[in-house]
Amino acid sequence: MADRFVSVGILLLAIMLSGLTFYVLTSRQQLAISIYPRLSIRIVSIVSGQPTTVSAIGPVSGIGMPGGVLASTRYLQDGANGLYPLYTNDRSGLIHVESRVVRSYTLGDFFEVWGQPLGPTQTLTLKQNGTSQGALFIKDFFWDMCLVNPGASLGSEYVSFEWGSHVLRDGEIIDLVYSPVGCA
Length: 184
Description:
The chain is an alpha+beta fold.
């Protein structure tokens, strides 16, 4: 009879340990950071004397997700639930920054996982172009990085020169503009 009790006890213990292991492996991991900045990438031209957005290029869907775009794995161990700590799940421009580690993730980190260049002379495939006329250098199209602080109105945009070193903040809007007028 005692052997039967021991056998049943071991069986129950094994079932409980299996259940606990399943729960730990399938439950969502705790996040130390969960912020959501928004990225807008626009090409602006002058139409009838006014700056006009002629094309909006958003980050593609699936950046930092399994089966999507993952050009860098530098911070892969920081991510939770099989995702890179910086990812997109659609083309809305919303960047999900969800990490198990407290870290100051930058716009450069996001572009690194996307595998695209970022900077004032080239972002994505578009390079600053300009013409030289003697001592004058005239910029036809150039890149500007414009920021809107979290909770501020869209008219309160300001120019930033941080580019890749810009630390992402919850609720901010990052507007990368390729144009002859910059942040307008």
